[in-house]
Structure formats: C-alpha cells, structure tokens
Amino acid sequence: MSDTPREIPGFYWDPEKKRYFKVEKSQTAPPTAQWSSSSVKRREHESQVAEQAAKRQQLTKNHVKRSVLTRDAVASGLLARETEIDRTAEAGRGKRENGDVLAAAWAREVTAKGKISFGMSWELSGHPHMSCFYIVGKESGSKSAIAYSALDSQFMVGTYIEPTEAAVVLSRPQRPAAGSLPTYNIVHCSHTSSIKYHAPSNRMLLTSSEPNVGGTLVLFRPPLDDVSSGRNWSLDIDHMAIPLGKKWCVAHQSTPAPAASNLLCVVGTSDGIMSIHSDETPRWLNPRPPNLGLDARAERPTPRGRFNRPRKTPFEIFSQDFQVDNHNVLFAGGRQPRLWISDLRAPAVEWSSIKHGSSIAHVRSINPYQVIVAGLRDCMSVYDTRFLQTGEQKDAAGRNASSPVLDFSEYRNQARFDIGWDVCPELNLVASAQDDSTVKLFSLSSGGLVRAGTDLEGFRAKNPVKALMFQTLRGERLPNLYMADGAYLKKFGCAPASDGDQE
C-alpha cells in the first residue's frame, strides 16, 4: 500500500496531526487553520506553478547541447582561458586550472623516445627490473648527460648519453673498438638502494642496503667531460664509503641537500634518519636509544626485523625531502603511518607528525606549502603545511584537522615500497607505477588520472616498475620521463620522433 494519503473531496489531510479535516469557509475557520478554503486553494495554485516550472526547465535542458570541446581537457581549458569563463564547482564545466591544461597537453603528446642499454650483460631480455637509477642532466652544467644504474646486487654502472641523443636515445651504445678504453664506469656498491646527485659539490650519492653489514653511503665524483672530446673513462673510479650504523642497519634512500644548506644529504635508514654534513661527518637526526653497555642483544632487531624505538619518533624511514625554499624543514615517511616533520634549526632535533592512511614509501615537497605523500593501501595525498596540526583535533564537520587537501583516488599500490614514483611540479604531474605493471600519470591540481599518449598508455611490464624519473637534458625545453624496464632505461617525451629513430 502507498504511504500517500487518499485525496477525499471536501477534506484536507494534515501531515503533522495525521488526520483529515473538513474544508471550512474562511469566515468560520480559525485564522491559522490549514484546512480553510483560501489556504487549500493557495497551496493548490503554488503546486501547479512549481510543476509547470519544472516541466519548462526540463524542456529547456533538452535543447542545450554541450560543445564537443568540453570532452578534451586541453581544448576546453584553452577555450575557457580565452573566453574568461569562471570556474564552477560542477565537474567538467567552466574554466580548467592552468596546471591541468599543461599536464594534459604534455601527456597526450608523449611518445617513446628509445632506450638506453649499459652494455654489461648479454642476457638483457630476461633481466629483472633495475632497483634504482639516476640521470645527471643539465643541472650539472656539462654538455653531456650521464646515466647511472644498479644492474645487479654488486655494482653500479654508468654510461654517457651523447648530446645528439637529447631528443631520441639509442637502443644500445656501440661497443668500444679493440684496444680502446671502455666508455662506462663501474662502482662497487652491493645492494644499491638509491642513486642521487648533489649538484653543488658534484658528487654522486649511493646508498647500500646490504644486510648484516650496516648501512653505507658511497660518494664519488662523476666525470663531466664532454664525450665529444674523445676522452674515455676508467673502468673503475675512486669512491669513498661512509658507514652509517652498526650491524643490521639498512640504508634505504638518500636525499641531496639544497645549495643553501650546510649538509651534503640526509639518509633514511632502518634505524632512523642520519644527516651527512659537507665535511662528511654523520649525525643522527632521531633520538638514539640509551647506551646499554656490552649487551649485544640490545642492538639486534626483533624477530619481525624492527628495533625497539619510542613510538613518537621515526625509526624506519623510506623517503624524505627538504621543504621547497626552506632547507631547514625536513619531511620524512616510512614504516609508521605518519608524515614526520622537523625543523633542523632547533638545538635538539624534535619531530612532530600527522597520521596518514598507510605506511609511506614516497615523500616530496612540491611547493613552499604543500607536500605529497604516497604509500601502501592505495593511499596518495597532498597535505598543506599551513593547516597541519599534530594533535587529534577535529573540525566542525568532525574530520581530522590535518586531513589532506587532495586525494588521488585512482592510485593503485597495495603493498610495495620498492615501486617507481616521481613528481614533476614543472609539468604539474605525478608519475607512478601501478600494481598492474602499468605506469600512470596524475594531475597535481585535481588528483585525477591524466590520459597519456599511446606508447605510455599501452606500456605493460612483467612486474611493477621499480624506478621512474623526470629529467631534463641539455638542449631540452621540457622534462622527459625515464623508467627502468628490465635492463633498459626507456625514455618517453612529448616531442615527436622521426620514423628512422624508432625501434
């Protein structure tokens, strides 16, 4: 049966009192009575007017045809910018953010630009993904770019990228002629976990995650001579190793310090965060446990591989970064589901933190106010440091006061710390490897998925890619995306390549 009461001629149904009243003349009914004849006629007239207005609105809506340009992010964004249409809250209408237009314009033109091989293995087809790599680009001031990669668990290999390869890289460098010196470097660093470059001092930073030895930071200066000068590299180059901790300490990643800082870098380890000063002296940035004397068992991890540390201090850090335009503020994330923040100017290092939805694998400061965090359980978010509160305060809507300002709902990474990820604020893009062995692009403005060109959109690997990097080489106007696919570094850029350069 319907809950709507029946209409009985001459009677009025009162929804509050749940009963019928006989319609009375206005002269005899009380002044506020809803069942007076004038009140009933007025409500009937209002109902008819509202119904007619709804019908006219529906007919008008059927005559409105949206332009096909609204389906294209670049075309609609440029058109809205020229016509000065105000941005509305409704998705897909109005003026798009300039960052979204730039990201979509770059992504849709992405094409494969070849691949780099280091020439160190004959079995390249079945080679597992490189754990990490780095390309020294135009920030070094050299005319030639250098690609470094950890091909196996013992050595780091480097090779030149010739200036003529700025647009399209060769699939495999030619082998040196008989009797000539090799054109690649080898540096011993077992279980290389990260490769970074400190431009102010021209030094490469390698971290080692070899178990049962202790974390190590390996330093060396890359040769920045122009490859066209005819000079060749030596097979091995001088390097220095700095021990970071005692046995069972594993170094996960280093972060080069900005030029204004008196630090060389900071290193995230399984035992906390360590800073390396410009004179190569180390210092722990997290509170250390008290000296427990000669009890060697105190230095051993628990059966689950963890050390006994206070809960409110960072203990196993996978990623860290300095705040943009402020080298005194450091962000860090790791095993604990918290984003850690510290001001290095304080006499004693103290850490504050906010809760995140999962353990954190990647942290990056994208502007002076915002930091992006990506981790497990498909959690990638942007936080604004101007509104962060380290307590558990709630706002008027009952949400945590430090809720993210942007979430990436289509990011997919359930349980991997060693998965490719990089941010390019210049292009307003985030590149991330996914659980399904693809690589996706996301907008830093909207958090939405940005559709890429056919080559990148159709990319599929056997396993999730472990390393990605945006980099700009000398002579290039915009960054390109590099990814480690097996033993090759594949390059994707927005400038179209000629047919003769493609594979």
Automatic annotation (TrEMBL):
Q: Please provide the record's keywords in A-Z order.
A: Repeat, WD repeat
* The keyword Repeat appears for this protein: yes
Cite the residue spans of the region called Disordered. 23-50, 278-310
**The protein, known as:** Predicted protein
GO cellular component assignments: Cul4-RING E3 ubiquitin ligase complex
InterPro entries noted in UniProt = CUL4-DDB1_E3_ligase_receptor, WD40/YVTN_repeat-like_dom_sf, WD40_repeat_dom_sf
From start to end residue, where is composition biased (Polar residues)? 26-39
